[in-house]
Write a structure and sequence with these properties.
heterodimer; A: about 270 residues; alpha/beta; eight-stranded mixed sheet; two-stranded antiparallel sheet; about 25% strand; B: DNA polymerase, domain 1; Dna Ligase, domain 1; elongated
Chain lengths: ~270, ~500
């Protein structure tokens, strides 16, 4: 079986496409460069080269979620042109990470899309989390198959952050074949989009660049003893299960506060320490 | 120097019909006019003409020559839309065009020499564009409308008449080219005048003395002088395509098959003008009488036929016309496609046209309330939301860093709220009326003993309505570690979970 798979992969490479060939340098430009001194020639560039260089730089960047521990786990944030899977059961903090990613991307002026299979988005709390709603396209499919189709279609439109949240268990609709995730990964790569798949259980298999698991959560309360209690937030543990370029197994903790708490560092510190 | 081009479609009724039914192109087809024994052929395809079918034959005579002749009546709707399409091709070359009817259009191409290497190239481009919309056209170019028309009617196309060479161009042509229905033709024939040049050589005053005002006009025309100015037409506010069907359609699929070709034609016409469709109207003629009309507002201007067809299909499936369809008209209301200035140094902007098409396709797949921009609603009730048209502001010109996250916990809203049973226990203060939540029970997986709860948080909203919202909210943490937002409804007896902290 593995021999067949290896043979198939060697004939039809699915995940490692050939790098695009750089177009040849025009003759007149090459002559001009040759006639200049080394430093001046190195600084000279034409429009096409500039666009290619900017595009290359852009693709090598990540979209940070600005949740420092999560970004550190992925080596800087959500990589452009790659698919990252975030798994975790209900209440594991996945949706908060999704909101942070949307908030960060839209605050940079990027357009983002949320494919919300469970219809779970609350625009008010998203706005409170810093999401610029004007730059977010909200798609609410009925089934997982529709969600995957929508993700593939929208990724080709040029959105820089594509988030697919498959909701909570159990998912509606049939399971999609594994090749669909490979196609999504290829689509993200072709269009330079950072793709985040938030799911209650692993779906993407080998197609994703990285897999992060949100595990145990600890709920934080403000107030103790006889005083009335206030829900203050949660602390969640994240584990890097897989990464193509980083060593897996790293663990971090992220603390998330309830948005109804006043934005007061003392209150938050109290909440986190309680 | 005035230069007027004429775009002419020979056998226009046939060409218009073949544009709507291209599969008939290789068949022996005749277009007939009139009913019963008065039905006569007005145009026929090449295959029919080679078998002896000529304009003027009655349908019975034509059938005796070719028993398997396909006869089609003149379709006013087809001809009107074909004429509109021809006018739009002309408008893609110059804004000053005149509709001369029956497959003919005049174009003022003065000053266009900079855009084409030669006038012949201009003619070739016009012929090519006409063929793209399914109308084989001929092209003539001269200094006057008359000379341009005659040049366009010649079989060799494009025909260019050099400036000042109109009289020389017309001279060898037969008189019938001047005006096909010439009242004075028999008189001129008796005089021995057969060509336009011979007419031009007659003295103008003598001709006017014998034939009157007609003689003077004929003499002017024969010398290539046409004082009639070009009368430009106004831009149409909408694009129409449609046809009358040979037999009534009762199933959706055959209708959509025909509608898709009409949408294709609409799309090409709008592309010629640089427009996209923002609203599509369909009017169906029903059997035995009556009409059924509907309008589809597209989420964003698009020219994507597949998208428009899908929206049409969904709409027809939702509300079928209820009777057989014997004709239809599709009207596209145009709008300028969205354009954006791309930035080199800022974040990548979305292509407006691609975005519009994708959103339209998503809407056709999911429904119009499932795709859009999330919007907040001015109310204190937490689960209210609105969805608007997605039209993002342009990205900044320069890249900027992300705003630092406040690390907030998000609530995952449950729509609709999950009904649960709540077990309570007295609060620790043992004060009457105060309690805490001890457990949650439900048929689903939101159930379990509660470790900690906090509340109630009172919410009263929309007091001015007959049924105001009056709720008490609690935050609860289950023993498994999951946390939820629970509320007690207006009556105080029903409990719901409307969000989970995730």
């Amino acid at each position: 079986m593995s021999v067949t798979a290896h043979l198939f992969e060697s004939r039809l490479p699915l995940l490692d496409p050939q790098p695009a060939q750089a177009p040849p340098v025009r003759d007149d430009l090459a002559r001009l460069r040759a006639s200049l001194a080394g430093t001046a020639a190195a600084k000279m560039t034409n429009g096409a080269e500039l666009i290619r260089a900017l595009e290359k730089t852009r693709r090598e960047e990540s979209i940070p979620t600005t949740l420092a521990p999560f970004d550190a786990l992925l080596g800087g944030g959500l990589p452009r042109g790659k698919m990252v899977e975030l798994t975790g059961r209900r209440g594991a903090g996945r949706f908060s990470i999704v909101m942070s990613a949307l908030a960060a991307a839209t605050s940079m002026g990027e357009a983002a899309v949320l494919i919300d299979l469970g219809d779970h988005l609350d625009p008010r709390s998203a706005e409170a989390a810093g999401v610029d709603l004007r730059r977010v396209l909200w798609i609410r499919p009925h089934t997982l198959k529709q969600a995957v189709m929508s993700t593939e279609m929208i990724a080709a439109t040029g959105f820089q952050l594509v988030v697919l949240d498959t909701g909570t268990h159990p998912m509606r609709g049939r399971r999609v074949p594994a090749v669909a995730w490979v196609r999504l990964g290829r689509s993200a790569e072709a269009h330079g989009a950072a793709m985040l798949i938030s799911t209650p259980y692993p779906l993407t298999g080998t197609a994703s660049e990285a897999v992060v698991t949100a595990g145990r959560t600890r709920v934080q309360w403000l107030g103790r003893g006889k005083s009335p209690r206030v829900f203050a937030g949660v602390t969640l543990d994240l584990t890097l299960e897989k990464h193509r370029h980083l060593r897996p197994g790293s663990n971090v903790s992220v603390t998330l506060s309830d948005p109804s708490l006043p934005d007061d560092s003392t209150t938050r510190r109290l909440a986190h320490s309680s | 120097m005035t230069r007027i081009a004429c775009l002419y479609v020979p056998m226009f009724p046939l060409a218009a019909r073949l544009r709507s039914e291209p599969e008939l192109l290789s068949e022996a087809v005749a277009i007939v006019e009139g009913n019963g024994s008065a039905a006569h052929v007005v145009a026929a395809t090449r295959r029919a003409r080679t078998k002896g079918i000529r304009p003027g034959l009655t349908l019975a005579q034509a059938r005796s020559l070719v028993p398997k002749l396909i006869a089609r009546g003149r379709d006013v709707e087809c001809e009107r839309t074909a004429q509109e399409a021809l006018l739009e091709v002309a408008e893609s070359f110059s804004p000053r065009i005149e509709d001369a009817g029956e497959g003919m259009v005049f174009i003022d191409v003065s000053g266009m020499e900079r855009h084409f290497a030669s006038e012949k190239d201009l003619g070739d481009a016009a012929i090519r564009d006409s063929e793209d919309i399914g109308l084989p056209a001929r092209f003539g170019l001269a200094a006057s409308k008359l000379a341009a028309r005659i040049a366009a009617e010649l079989p060799k196309s494009p025909t260019i008449v050099e400036p000042g060479g109109e009289a020389e161009f017309l001279a060898p042509l037969p008189l019938a080219r001047l005006t096909p229905e010439l009242d004075a033709a028999s008189t001129l024939q008796r005089w021995g005048i057969t060509s336009i040049g011979e007419l031009a050589h007659l003295p103008e005053s003598e001709l006017a003395a014998r034939l009157g005002e007609l003689g003077r006009d004929l003499h002017y025309a024969a010398r290539g002088i046409d004082p009639r100015p070009l009368i430009p037409r106004a831009l149409p506010p909408e694009f129409r395509e449609g046809m009358e069907l040979e037999w009534p359609l009762v199933a959706l699929e055959p209708f959509l098959f025909i509608a898709s070709t009409a949408l294709d034609r609409l799309s090409k016409r709008m592309e010629l003008q640089g427009f996209a469709c923002k609203r599509l109207e369909l009017t169906m003629t029903l059997e035995p009488d009556g009409y059924h009309a509907r309008a589809i507002d597209l989420p964003a201007p698009t020219r994507d036929t597949k998208t428009m067809l899908t929206l049409l299909r969904l709409d027809l499936e939702k509300t079928p016309p209820g009777a057989p369809v014997i004709g239809f008209t599709l009207v596209a209301h145009p709008d300028r496609p969205r354009r954006a200035q791309l930035s080199l140094f800022g974040p990548a902007a979305l292509s407006p046209e691609k975005l519009a098409t994708t959103i339209a396709r998503l809407v056709s797949m999911l429904g119009d309330d499932r795709v859009g921009m999330p919007q907040t609603v001015d109310t204190h009730i937490p689960d209210r939301y609105a969805i608007g048209t997605f039209a993002p502001p342009p990205p900044p010109n320069l890249r900027r860093g992300p705003r630092k996250s406040r690390g907030l916990l998000a609530a995952r809203i449950f729509r609709p709220p999950v009904a649960v049973e709540v077990i309570t226990r007295p609060s620790r203060e043992n004060e009457p009326g105060e309690f805490q939540i001890a457990a949650i029970k439900s048929d689903g997986d939101i159930a379990g003993d509660v470790r900690t709860s906090a509340g109630p948080w009172q919410l009263t909203a929309e007091w001015w309505n007959p049924s105001p919202v009056d709720r008490e909210y609690w935050d609860v943490e289950l023993l498994q570690g999951k946390s939820y937002r629970v509320y007690r409804g207006d009556g105080g007896a029903e409990w719901f979970v409307d969000a989970g902290y995730d």
